[in-house]
Amino acid sequence: MAGPWSIVETSAFDPVARVDPHARLKELREQCPVMRDEPAKTWLLTRYGDVRETVNDRSLWRYWGLSEKGALLRRMDGDETPPRVNSILSMDEPDHSRVRTPLAKTFYARINAMKPQIAAIIDEVIDSPPDDRPFDLIADVAIPIPILVIASILGVERDRFREFRAWSEASILGLNPLRTPEETERMTWGSEKLTEYFTQLMARRRAEPADDLISDMVKLQADGAPLDDEELRVNLSALLIGGNLTTTDLIGNGVWLLLNHPEQLAALEADPALASAAVEEILRYESPVAITSRIMSEPREVGGCPIQPHQSIITSLHAANRDPDVFEDPDRFDITRKHAPHVAFGGGSHICIGAPLARIEAKQALVRLFERFPALKLAKEEPPTWRALPFFRGMEALWVQV
């Protein structure tokens, strides 16, 4: 049950795993696929079958506060002090379905209604970088696309997009347990500004409804949906923060992979219809989210190992997505892969609520980017710097040129 690597040594906490987590995860999957990391008070699963079964099991708990004291994610989230209102990311039943069901239904309807506006925003962002000098794809393309798209969906006024982006980027610092005191101060400022803004916007939309998600949600409340204002604010913020970071990384990781696999880029440029398959392969091969977690609700065995109630389980999405029992030649990046049932978005009732929007944004961004810059290439020979953000996978910068 004890493996050659700790959970921390497979994450971006560790400088070696930050650059390439896959070698250590492969060793774990082969030697100790169900590992108890006693110092972290957590189990780590690395086989696809165990991961898929665990994330799909609706009887397991999601809220970290139900795990045993000292569990890694519980410590990272503050351990003893539960938030007054949880987001759907950490809610269990019946509250999870009560909040997620109307939010998801309304969100997906709004996405479908706004596909032309989403495409126009992506086009505008991709048209903005210079074509006569290198530029940072992360800062100039991958970060603004998801922030501006969600701002438009929510109903943020265009003249406040700049402020909204600043608040959003500051709030994302909350995902980093290694942030500096200055970053914590900036995070707090951004979160408070977003809360204040959402409160004001909800009030305005009750008085004067518009064609946006905030108006949709406050109308649902008025029609009897069992959601209070605080739950709505917390979950809109969670949608914003989680979706922005991971979609930024999906776009950035995808461009990096395609530029480093010119034969795959050539296939995409020859047949843009491969864009959807390309996004799925990027998600499988270099998923923006490295793990998801559950809390055991009753005694059971996983892979022959007894796991007790309240013990924390981390499932490695990265390891599962390269399991050779499921994926042929799993360490090969291939956008023509025919069957790629990856778990990059988790699974079960907690499958990523933003997955449909992330797919739309990444597909459109990749196609338009390489149309706009057909000679795009890496501007620096050295490898990129991967962010030291545990359990996420993305680059600090990606310099490119035409």
From TrEMBL:
InterPro entries: Cyt_P450, Cyt_P450_B, Cyt_P450_CS, Cyt_P450_sf
Entry annotated with the keyword Oxidoreductase: yes
Superkingdom classification of source: Bacteria
Keyword terms: Heme, Iron, Metal-binding, Monooxygenase, Oxidoreductase
PROSITE patterns the record matches: CYTOCHROME_P450 (PS00086)
UniProt cross-references to PANTHER family, sorted A to Z: P450, PUTATIVE (EUROFUNG)-RELATED
Family assignment from sequence similarity: Belongs to the cytochrome P450 family.
Protein name: Cytochrome P450
